[in-house]
Amino acid sequence: MTFFKPGQTISVDPTTVHAEVGYSLVFHPDFIRSYDLANKIGSYSFFDYEVNEALFLSDREKEQIRNIGKGIISEYENTIDSYSQDAIVSFIDLLLVYSQRFYNRQFITRKVHNVPLVIRFEQLLDHYFNDETERNGLPQVGYFAERLHMSKNYLSDLLRSQTGDSAQNHIQHKLIEKAKDLLSGSELSVAEIAYQLGFEQPQSLNRLFKENSGLTA
Question: What is the pTM of this model?
Fold first, then answer.
C-alpha cells in the first residue's frame, strides 16, 4: 500500500511489471472537510513516505483492508442517503487507523533490517559534528534521510519505533551533548560554541538547553 496527498505527482514506468489487480481509493479533500478526519489526517506521516517505503501486508492484513474496501464500495454503489457520506468517511478513517497499525508492525518485524540503519544514522550524526568540512549550519533531518535513501518522515518514524525518539529529538540530544563537551572542555564562550555548532544566534542554544533541561548554557 502507498499513500498520496493533494499536490503530489504520481508517475508510472510502463517498462516495469505491475500487479494485474489493484485498487485505488481517491477522494477530494472537500469530501472529509466537515469531519474530524480532516484535522486528523495530517498526523499520518506515511502520506509523505517515498514509494519504496510502501506498506507490505500479511495475508490477514490484506483481508482486513479488503473488508474495509468492500464496505466503501457497498456504500458507494447503494442508493445515496443522508448517512452515505458519514459511513464512507468512517471507513476511510478506519482504513488509515489500520494502516498506521500495520506500519508500526512493519517497523517491528523488520527490526533486523532497521537496527543497522539506526546505527548508520548515529554514525552520520557523529560525523556531521566531527568533520568541519561536512558541517553547514544546524543538522537537518532531510540531510540524514537523503544519505540513508529514505524520506524524512520514514526515518523519523523508524527511529521512534526503535528508540522512542524522533530524528529531530536525536539531533537535539546530540547538539546538547556536543555543547556540554565544549562548555566543559574548552575556553570558548557560549556564543562561540553556538556558532561552531551551527546556530545563527547564541540565544537559540540557550533556548534549546532550557527546553530540554530547564537550565541555560
Answer: 0.76
